[in-house]
From TrEMBL:
Keyword set, alphabetical order: Oxidoreductase
Protein name, as recorded: Benzoyl-CoA 2,3-epoxidase subunit BoxB
Top-tier EC class: oxidoreductase
Keyword Cytoplasm: no
A GO MF term: oxidoreductase activity
Enzyme Commission code: 1.14.13.208
InterPro entries linked: Aromatic_CoA_ox/epox (IPR052703), Benzoyl_CoA_Oase_BoxB (IPR017635), Ferritin-like_SF (IPR009078), RNR-like (IPR012348)
Length: 471
């Protein structure tokens, strides 16, 4: 059992907030700003209450409490995983030293930047998903959307706590800015590109929660290794919540594919558009788009910044403790993806500068497991079609392949040819219009839209036809 959350507090927490009055006051004055952001930029569908889970403690058991809650009254809190008093830094030049409980002065700016960037993605995705409630395919899906939204809100709280608790006035100013930037805004957009893209329909939402939240899992996984212990413990707890978002994406795409396959067999056609479904080739185009913009979130193939973060002990590798090397990497080398003589190939670089590629490769392998799963659904139905991840060079705007155009098969083509053929690889206006035309809300208990299959299981042992949301 981890330390329990104190729900008598204005801000539920397990960090002993009441012992630091100044910090408590600062966060209590940020809270109304957060709530007004939630009212204006959060879910736009009015609801009475929603069957949500709330964290009660950070231990393995029973950290989630389920019940119907009016969303505005959701208890957003601050939770850090249990502290290990003997924890040591696991990598970089400080390897073996005790983990830091305060911010080391020389790394202050870098740590603040890492926390701000992570913090910025959380409210951004709530903003991107703001209008999806109006077109939910079932009450079960509507509930999952709102659960993702409140947890992204909690992840914002997690980062705001760190900024307020450890970074003084600058931290408080950055916490304000997190509510002032808005996804897709001309004047003050969100920091990372993928978080300014729109999420106008549920197929986009499932792809986003599968691919883009999975990027979040890997970024949190590297910060969970941080020598700055409060950040490590914050991210460890966030990863538990992130797992739910990816489940929503994985099973969401499962169910779209399953329904498409049923329609293909029923009507003996690949193009199920006329029958109210989403064809596999359109699903593939959405997959191509979300996967490629998510690859960009990992940054360039080589990065001296990330090398610096690693050496300083700020940000480790995915599963750092399972790596069989010296955890310093000062002498090693690594192969990274690159353009070599005008072709997609690899080049050797010092291991430290290749860390973005190391992380991206773990992510790609993970993404492939979802594609394999979706293909099994098609295969079991006895159909020959398969979904696939596109080439690592396809549709890239960041890194080694930003300056070229490549097909999903990894063939380099001219800009003119790319323009001519991109409608075969990325969603066209016609595709998007068709998908949007299917997005008619189904808000009756136990009913579901015709373009998606019902889930195998409900939430927390409840049936599919449970009243998950009271509108």
């Amino acid at each position: 059992m981890g330390p329990s959350a104190d729900y008598t507090e204005k801000i539920p927490n397990n960090v002993g907030l009441h012992e630091d009055r100044r910090l408590q006051r600062a966060l209590e004055s940020w809270q109304p700003n957060f709530l007004s952001w939630w009212e204006s930029m959060g879910p736009s569908l009015p609801t009475q209450d929603v069957y949500l889970r709330t964290a009660v403690n950070v231990g393995r058991e029973g950290w989630a409490h389920f019940g119907h809650v009016p969303m505005r009254d959701y208890r957003w809190g601050i939770f850090l995983a249990e502290r290990d008093g003997d924890r040591r830094i696991g990598f970089g030049e400080h390897k073996g030293e005790p983990a830091w409980q305060k911010v080391p002065g020389e790394y202050r700016a870098d740590l603040q930047r890492l926390i701000v960037i992570q913090g910025d993605t959380e409210p951004a995705s709530v903003e991107q998903q703001r209008n999806l409630g109006a077109t939910a395919p079932s009450l079960y899906d509507l509930r999952n959307l709102f659960q993702v939204n409140v947890e992204e809100g909690r992840h914002l709280w997690a980062m705001v706590y760190l900024l307020h608790a450890f970074f003084g006035r600058e931290g408080r100013e950055e916490a304000e800015q997190l509510l002032h930037r808005n996804s897709g805004s001309e004047e003050s957009p969100r920091i990372l590109g993928a978080f300014n893209e729109e999420t106008p329909d549920w197929l986009s939402f499932f792809m986003f929660t599968y691919f883009t939240d999975r990027d979040g899992k890997y970024q949190l996984g590297t910060l969970k290794e941080s020598g700055f212990d409060p950040l490590a413990r914050t991210c460890e707890f966030m990863l538990k919540e992130e797992a739910h978002h990816m489940m929503v994406g994985t099973t969401g795409v499962d169910r779209v594919v399953e329904r498409t396959v049923q329609l293909m067999i029923e009507h003996d056609t690949e193009d199920v558009t006329a029958h109210g479904g989403i064809s596999l080739d359109v699903i593939q185009k959405y997959l191509n788009f979300h996967y490629s913009v998510s690859l960009d979130l990992f940054g360039g193939e080589t990065s001296t910044n990330v090398a610096g973060y690693y050496t300083a002990g700020l940000k480790g590798r995915w599963m750092e403790d399972r790596r069989a090397d010296d955890h310093r990497l000062t002498d090693g080398s690594a192969m990274v993806d690159a353009l070599v003589d005008g072709r997609i190939g690899e080049t050797e670089v010092p291991a430290l500068t290749g860390l973005n590629t190391d992380l991206r490769r773990a992510y790609i392998a993970d993404c492939q497991s979802g594609v394999n799963r979706w293909n099994k659904i098609i295969e079991r139905a006895g159909l020959p079609q398969r979904l696939a991840l596109p080439s690592i060079a396809f549709n890239r705007k960041v890194g080694a392949f930003a300056g070229i155009e490549a097909t999903p098969d990894g063939e380099i083509v001219s800009a003119a040819e790319w323009e001519r053929r991109k409608g075969a690889w990325l969603p066209t206006d016609v595709d998007k219009t068709h998908v949007r035309s299917l997005m008619r809300p189904v808000h009756e208990r136990g009913k579901i839209a015709a373009w998606i299959a019902p889930p195998r299981n409900g939430i927390n042992g409840k049936p599919f036809d449970y009243d998950y949301v009271h509108l």
